[in-house]
Amino acid sequence: MPIKILSVDDENDLELLLTQYFRRKIRKGEYEFSFAHNGLEALTMLLKNKDYDIILSDINMPEMDGLTMLTKINEMQNPALKCIMVSAYGDMGNIRQAMNSGAFDFATKPIDLDDLSVTIEKAIEQIQYIKTMQQEHNQLESIKGDLAVAREIQQAILPQIFPPFPENSGELDISASMNAAKDVGGDFYDFFRIDDDRIGFVIADVSGKGVPAAIFMAVSRTLIRATGIRGVIPSECITYSNDLLAKESANYMFVTVFYGIYNIKTGEVTYTNAGHNPPYLMKADGSVVQLPISKDIVVGALDDFQFTEETLQLEHGDTLLLYTDGVTEAINVNNEEYGEKRLEDTLKDVTQGSCQQIINTVKDNVKVFTGEAEQSDDITLLAIKRL
Predict the structure, then answer these.
(1) What is the pLDDT of residue 150?
(2) pLDDT tens digits for 290-311?
(3) How does DSSP classify residue 197?
(4) Which of 43, 150, 231, 338 has the fewest CB atoms within 10 Å distance of its CB?
């Protein structure tokens, strides 16, 4: 695209002078000149065609002088439009005022066309830099908009209605929360009905952050849900999901997963912990016990691995709290971690609370601990209570 230059001068000789001096660049399509004879005519042309790059304007003109026109151009707020002001050599007062008003540079009459050519080239460099920055800014704004939509989609695929199973409201309490560290995250939780007596529930943490983790999260969540909802035992569900994810995994991504099946009638939990943080069992008597550390590997790292499963009995009033390492590894301004000890102490104070109260208490406690420190990882919690 040619650099479009608007020359504003009431002397007709300048038009011939410029077109003759810059004829090669005009012929090659590098420069494109337009001409106006006063500021008012120039502003009219600018309003009709907003793609001018350089204004080359005399200061002293009839109807509207160059300084007034410069003020009007500034109101357009176009940083890529550069103004080069022209005046008599002795008119330094007006030239100084023009520079203070935002002119890019100036030239004195009689115009030294060689010097003007250098000034125009300098202006073009600035214009190209600004346009590049504007283009990158627009691209970033577009990406930001896409990420906002992706965040909404990601939140939409996670269960948001609590209680999720109102028909079992007297037997079961369940709640969950996910707060991404970035626009989109790699953590997820899910729960779904398998049959009248059984509920499947899962919490997971994908390696990495941002868009790649979010995509892997969506794939993992869909695969585990589609497999689990068929009613297969947890070890079989995770083994099958792992084989598929390991074969398709890019950049060595993996996901830690805790998947369990809760029997509403008996309170029994059958679960597989694939490299995830061991949950806490909050007993009705006020005690808090951490489940054993998983001996199974993470999901997606190695195919043909046979996962195992364990069983756990929830008595009436017991709560199982699952969380991702964004909770225990939350860092404050002193670079200290929240840690399992603080989490355990917090849970001891709310063993009798509802699942939502427990989750809110943990999140609030972590927030107080971290203070002004930036959230470094996704924070996800899931609680299930036998009523």
Answers:
(1) 66
(2) 999 999 999 999 999 999 999 9
(3) S
(4) 231
Encoded tokens for 365: 């406690």
**Rounded Cα distance, 41 and 62, in Å:** 11
The rounded Cα 6 to chain-centroid distance in angstroms is 41
- In tens, the pLDDT along 356-375 reads 999 999 999 999 999 999 99
> Would you say 204 and 169 are in contact if contact means Cβ atoms under 8 Å apart?
no
What is the rounded distance in angstroms from the CA atom of residue 109 to the CA atom of residue 285? 94
Residue 23 tokens read as 């004829």
CA–CA distance from 54 to each of 59, 73, 119, 121, 248 (Å)? 15, 11, 11, 11, 54
- Please give the DSSP secondary-structure letter assigned to residue 112: -
Q: How does pLDDT run across 181-205, given as a tens digit for each residue?
A: 877 778 999 999 999 999 999 999 9
Task: Please name each of the domains of the chain with its CATH number.
Answer: 3-136 (3.40.50.2300), 159-386 (3.60.40.10)
Give DSSP secondary structure letters for 321-372.
Answer: EEE-HHHHT-B-TTS-B-HHHHHHHHHHT-TTS-HHHHHHHHHHHHHHHHTT
